[in-house]
């Protein structure tokens, strides 16, 4: 399929050449199952549509990967392992979904593939969703999951997550940094609380698959009217201390309002004396993890994600050029 024709209003970004044909095919497939007006449905309707869309992209487990569910307090977890492997590290994965949709099933195949490609144990956390449970419920659940994973596995621990889940992973890292030396953190198109009037938020306000209006809609649901302007557990970028954080890789999609969050977060860590690498994936859009088997750019990015997790879990040094040179 050729890039779709785009009628660009004055001041809006033209994506017709930035986004390649493979990615346009992915965008169209997502919109078939998750149309743009889904946000107008009630929450149960949104979840039903989202789950259908996830099912359309779902991949089978790699051979040898198994998973079992458990309950830690009131928090459901799914624990993955690769048979015949003694895991060298464990990954705590927090799924995306705007804090409103998603769960153990939505990112099940992603976690299984991370487990397979690294050999690490992977634990996915099914945190409580809004609006039934406003902030800080999801954050509290991820902190509880972190403590259980740390104590249960007693292995180098890597935090990872995408979108809303990357927000939660970062918030956990800020909370536990004084008591636990994390092996690393990998954030995939994270939402971290950057200013929403400039930079990528302005340039990509109407990007395919995620608009600034949708971001603000989900943030309002999550906050439930509370003042979160100085709450780093809600938006890690508002923290005034970025010292002591683990080695971090933040990977953004170029055509995404959230793009600058990754850049600003890495700069903040670097300015505090820490190690952080920002990778901006050219021509990709929010949610591209689901395109990792069909879009070459997304496939390469997933390879970088896995490589970063693997390096951190083995406590190997990692550079920006190391990641850029990775491709399938």
Please provide a brief summary of the model:
By secondary structure, this protein is of the alpha/beta class. It is built from ten helices and eight strands.
Provide structural commentary:
With 328 residues, this protein is of the alpha/beta class. The protein has one domain (21-324): Rossmann fold, CATH 3.40.50. 37% of the residues lie in helices and 17% in strands. The longest helix is centred in the last third of the chain and has 18 residues, at 296-313. The model is unreliable at 1-10 (pLDDT under 50).
Measured distance between first and last alpha carbons: 23 Å
Structural class by secondary-structure content? alpha/beta
Number of domains: 1
Mean pLDDT level = 94
**Radius of gyration computed on alpha carbons:** 18 Å
Helix proportion range:
25-40%
Number of strands: 8
Q: What's the story with the biggest beta sheet?
A: 8 strands, mixed
Low-confidence blocks of residues: 1-10
Strand order of the largest sheet: 1-2-4-3-5-6-7-8
Proportion of residues in extended strands: 15-25%
The general outline is: globular
The CATH homology group name: Alpha/Beta hydrolase fold, catalytic domain
Q: What is the CATH architecture term? A: 3-Layer(aba) Sandwich
Fold blueprint:
Elements lengths: L20 H13 L9 H15 L7 E8 L2 E8 L7 E5 L13 H11 L2 E5 L11 H17 L3 E6 L1 H13 L7 E5 L10 H5 L8 H12 L24 E8 L3 H13 L4 E10 L10 H18 L6 H5 L4
Parallel strand pairs: 3-4, 3-5, 5-6, 6-7, 7-8
Antiparallel strand pairs: 1-2, 2-4
Spell out the key features of this protein.
328 residues, alpha/beta, Rossmann fold, eight-stranded mixed sheet, 17% strand, globular, disordered N terminus
């Amino acid at each position: 399929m050729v890039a779709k024709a785009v009628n660009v209003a004055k001041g809006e970004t033209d994506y017709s050449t930035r986004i390649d044909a493979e990615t346009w095919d992915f965008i169209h497939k997502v919109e078939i199952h998750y149309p743009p007006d889904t946000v107008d449905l009630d929450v149960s309707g949104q979840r039903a549509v989202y789950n259908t869309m996830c099912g359309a992209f779902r991949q089978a487990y790699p051979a040898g990967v198994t998973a079992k569910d458990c309950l830690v307090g009131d928090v459901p977890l799914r624990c993955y392992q690769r048979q015949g492997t003694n895991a060298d590290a464990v990954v705590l994965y927090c799924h995306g979904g705007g804090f409103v949709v998603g769960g153990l099933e939505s990112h099940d195949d992603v976690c299984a593939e991370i487990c397979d490609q690294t050999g690490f144990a992977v634990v996915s956390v099914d945190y409580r969703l809004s609006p039934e449970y406003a902030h800080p419920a999801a954050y509290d659940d991820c902190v509880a999951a972190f403590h259980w994973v740390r104590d249960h596995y007693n292995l180098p621990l890597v935090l990872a997550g995408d979108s809303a889940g990357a927000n939660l992973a970062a918030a956990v890292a800020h909370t536990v940094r004084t008591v636990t030396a994390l092996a690393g953190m990998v954030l995939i198109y994270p939402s971290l609380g950057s200013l929403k009037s400039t930079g990528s938020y302005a340039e990509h306000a109407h990007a395919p698959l995620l608009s600034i209006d949708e971001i603000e809609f989900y943030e309002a649901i999550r906050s439930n009217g509370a003042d979160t302007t100085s709450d780093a557990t809600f938006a890690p970028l508002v923290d005034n201390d970025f010292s002591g954080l683990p080695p971090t890789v933040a990977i953004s999609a170029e055509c995404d309002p959230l793009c600058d969050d990754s850049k600003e977060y890495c700069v903040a860590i670097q300015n505090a004396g820490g190690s952080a690498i920002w990778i901006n994936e050219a021509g990709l859009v929010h949610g591209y993890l689901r395109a990792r088997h069909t879009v070459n750019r997304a496939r390469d990015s997933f390879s970088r994600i896995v490589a970063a997790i693997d390096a951190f879990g083995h406590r190997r040094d990692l550079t920006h050029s190391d990641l850029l040179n990775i491709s399938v």
